[in-house]
Amino acid sequence: MRIVVDSDSDSDFDDTLNARRRLLAELSQDGNMSFGATSVEKVGNLLDELVLTPEPVQRRYEDHLADVAHVEQLRDDVNSRSMKMCSQVDESQQSREQKRLQRLQEIRLGKQRAKEIAQEKERIAAELERQKREKERLELEKQEEARRAEQRRLDEQAAKLRAERDRQEAERAAQEAEKQRLDAEKQARAKAEQEAKEAAEKAKEKAEQEAKEAAEKQAKEAAEKASQASAQGFTNLDDVNKEFAHYKDLIASYKRDLVAPVSAQPAVKAGCFAYKTKIKTKLGQLTYTKEKVVRTRAELRTLFGESKAQGDLVYRWTLNYYAKAMVSHAESQAHLAVQTAVPLAMVTILLWSDYPELGEFVIARLVKKCPQVIGYGCSIETEEGRIRMGYKREDGRWETQEAYSERISAMTAVFAALTQTKLGVKENIKHPYPIKHSWVFIARQLNKPTELLLNADYAAVASWWDICCERFQLAFGKQANKVLHLAANGWTAVSAQQKYPAAARLHLLGEDWNSSGKLQQAWKPLA
């Protein structure tokens, strides 16, 4: 390094010194400042070209030397820094190179990874494809297995159907054989039954013919007796009065010998009242059907049997109450006289045939409320007379003739139905109250003294006509026709002045018979 000092020019020296100081200031700002090669070269050139002109002024020489030393130091520092900076540059370049290499490595690794990923994807795709093919294979195997299972099921079902068809054919063959056997037995049985039926019909016809002949004989005898009495112009009123008194005494004995003893024994009374409830219920449920009649008869027959097993007192009390309830039921159903009378009489006459003791209770109860059924009559001018004739009194007033006649008509319908009900050959018993009692009834009514005749008497005969006319004519023939003509014409004319409504109705029944030439009962056989 060469330094020239020009002593002749202080200003140049100062300028140079200032330039040097500026350079030093720049170099001394920041130790971390980076210098390139150009800056180092520039500093060197400035230092080499710095020439100080000798100067006589010695005072400033030391400073310059110090500055030069300082500059040298700075130069060394600059060189050191340059080297350091170059080293840093090299390190930076190496770092960048490493980073570049690293990036290249990463790029290479990325490509490798991408390749591996692609390969993995291919492997996965291949695996998925393999799994898909495996799944399809398994599905096909499953379908094939299902098809084989279905085929086996169908084969088994077909085998079962064949077996079932074979079994059914065998059963049909067996049934056909059994049917042929049964048909043969049926034909043989039918033939035997037909033969037995024919024999039974012949026996039945014979029995009916014998019964008919006996009934006709009995009826003719009764008719002859009644005709003889009619021919003489009277009915033996004493006999009628005695019969009425007999039934009146029976009613009194029932109260004394049956009702009172039962009431005195609580246990017996409770049992009797249980029978009472059942009897009322059964009669209330009775309808106009043969099935109901048969069922009611069977139920009451069982009840009578139970009461009989408990002793004579309970048994007779039960019979008495049945008769009383039967008459009351007929009386309460007066507006349905025919519909009520026929089934009620059928049940009663069947029970009568089962329990003969029932008869006296039934007739006694009928006579008490409807004395016309035995031809009884008396004056109703007195209270005693009205009581005897069965009038009802409520709140101190006697019932009207219309109400009384309606009740008498209903009870006479039951009486008439009792006499004409057929028991049938199957019952194999004698009728307990046959049609001859109807002859006695009509004969006594027609021979009753005129002054004793009431509208109720004509109502009773008209009701009897509705129920019994055909059976009466069948039993007594010409004699019956004479009696019926007399009742509808001559007998009704006797009370023409009183203009009884029931007499007019009876006369119309006779006119209908005359015009049609045939008697027609007002009821139909039970279904």
TrEMBL record:
Residues 133-152, 159-231 are annotated as: Disordered. GO terms for cellular component: cytoplasm; nuclear pore cytoplasmic filaments. It is found in: Nucleus, Nuclear pore complex. The keyword Nucleus applies. Its main location: nucleus. Keywords: mRNA transport, Nuclear pore complex, Nucleus, Protein transport, Translocation, Transport. Gene3D superfamilies: GLE1-like. One of its GO terms (molecular function) is phospholipid binding. One of its GO terms (biological process) is poly(A)+ mRNA export from nucleus. Pfam families: GLE1 (PF07817). Residues 159-224 have a biased composition (Basic and acidic residues). Belongs to the GLE1 family. This is mRNA export factor GLE1. The lineage of its organism: Eukaryota, Fungi, Dikarya, Ascomycota, Saccharomycotina.
